[in-house]
Amino acid sequence: MSRIGDLIPAAAAHLGLADELRRARMVATFDALVAERAPAAHGACRAVRLDGSVLVVEADAPIVAQELRLRSMTLVAAFRTAPGGAEVTELRVTVRSRNPSR
Predict the structure, then answer these.
(1) Topology of the domain covering 4-95
(2) Whether residue 4 has pLDDT greater than 90
(3) Are 76 and 88 in contact (CB under 8 A)?
(4) Which of 14, 73, 79, 93 shows its CA 20 to 30 Å from the CA of 102?
């Protein structure tokens, strides 16, 4: 008897989805860390990608970006040690551009 969570990585690799699974775990891990360590920013930001050892995060508003930057050292340290995280050294926060025609 195997747990389904133990089978998913092998199935994802077999289907060529290992990178997508890793990305989904990264996004979920970052979201959980923000909820715990920067609750004012939770729901208004998301992990976008890893650029080497830099975690790129998109914020919905400048005030959210500021909150994330203020807590970046804490978030980076937690992300490095979290099971779904990665070995990052920096958090780069960008503000989501809004389409002015909407």
Answers:
(1) GMP Synthetase; Chain A, domain 3 (3.30.300)
(2) no
(3) yes
(4) 93
